[in-house]
Design goal:
single chain, alpha+beta, eight-stranded antiparallel sheet, 8 strands
Length: about 120
């Protein structure tokens, strides 16, 4: 099973200021001293909260889904909002990265990157 990790649009934007991180054609490339790792990204959303503060009948708050998964559930998405049935949700746009199991974990690669850029 592939490992998944959510990257918010805000994080992607801040990382691309560094020349070692590039985001093009739905691919996130991170270059470290040990080489370059690439991750295919799919548009996704983190469900932040129910917009009106009402109960969450679909148990979506604090979950991450691709746009395709939300549409398959019957959700309508517009910018930072989604509606499923009668319930409106606030969404955080971003991407889900997947990698093969034999590659270095996304967390390991990001820790290496952050250690080198913050020290």
């Amino acid at each position: 099973m592939a490992e998944k990790l959510f990257f918010s649009q805000e994080i992607i934007n801040s990382w691309t200021d560094d020349q070692r991180v590039k985001f093009e054609n739905d691919t996130l490339s991170i270059t470290t001293g040990k080489g370059k790792q690439e991750y295919k990204l799919a548009q996704a959303y983190r469900v932040v909260k129910v917009s009106a503060g009402s109960p969450d009948p679909h148990n979506l708050v604090n979950t991450i889904h691709t746009g395709e998964e939300l549409k398959a559930m019957g959700a309508d998405i517009y910018m930072n909002s989604g509606i499923l049935g009668e319930t409106a949700y606030d969404l955080e746009p971003g991407y889900v990265a997947t990698k093969a199991e034999d590659e270095k974990s996304i967390e390991e690669l990001l820790m290496e990157y952050l250690a080198k850029t913050l020290i």
